[in-house]
Amino acid sequence: MITEVFSKVRRITYAQGHIGGFEIGVSNTMVVTWIIMAILVVSSIVIVRKMSAVSTSKAGGVVEILVETVNGLCKSSIGHLGKVYVPYIGTLLLFLGVANIITVFNFFPFINLYPPTKDINVTGGLAVMSIAVVIYSGFRYLGFKGWAKSLIKPTPVMAPFKIMEYGTKPLSLCLRLFGNILASFIIMELLYAVAPIVAAPFSAYFDLFDGLLQAFIFTYLTTIYIGEAVEE
After folding, report:
1. CA distance 150 to 232
2. Is the separation of the CB atoms in 202 and 187 below 8 Å?
3. Number of helical H runs and strand E runs in the chain
């Protein structure tokens, strides 16, 4: 049983090829990621197309709450430049939210999806992307001189530590998300194998609450890092 559960953690490659001397493979992680992207794109088109300036539908209410949450998050963490990052932060939050809770669809017959965020390559890529936005923001709004001065505040002794943060921050983002989602996935798979009848209430926590919580934490920390980078 343990072997079967941990076999589901491994990344499975469905097809392989070579492009320019590099070996390219299509894995189960990529397939699920494409499915999530398709869900988000189609849902956005369907919901936004039927929305008006004053929406009274349930979908419109959910979208409004989400937009207000992202706006408030960016404003509180980044400040007056928060609106610039709303599209990125909102997309990041939506993708992580759906990716982390994708296993809830497994209750339907013939569906067997795994969260792509249990793959460290996915969380590592998202972390690198976020820290790239942080570094770019510092150069864009402070300039090179302003960014260099921020490294020696409040004292030049802090410069090596602040430079080191550009490595520790993405590592922390990556491992925190990967560790939590992987642990939740393994726990739920063990419960499904041992006691599937009592797995439903635990799924409400590990698949839903914890998944959404980890998505929010990753996004919130990203806004904090961006706010620190653009702070004058």
Report:
1. 8
2. yes
3. 8, 2
pLDDT at 106 over 80: no
Among 68, 84, 66, 74, which Cα is nearest to 223's?
Answer: 74
Separation between Cα atoms, residue 107 and residue 31, nearest integer Å: 19
Of residues 71, 73, 228, the one with CA closest to residue 142: 228
Task: Give the SS3 label for residue 17.
Answer: strand
The tokens for 103 are: 């296993």
Q: For residue 211, count CB atoms less than 10 angstroms from its CB and return exposed for 0-12, middle for 13-18, buried for 19 or more.
A: buried
The radius of gyration of the chain from alpha carbons, rounded to an integer in Å, stands at 20
Whole-prediction pTM: 0.87
Q: Where are the beta strands (DSSP E) in the chain?
A: 13-19, 22-27
Q: What is the pLDDT of residues 187-204, one digit of tens each?
A: 888 887 777 777 777 777
Question: Are residues 185 and 103 in contact, defined by beta-carbon separation less than 8 angstroms?
Answer: yes
What is the DSSP secondary structure assignment for residue 157, as one 8-state letter? G
Please name which of 112, 73, 115 lies closest in space to residue 96, comparing C-alpha atoms: 115
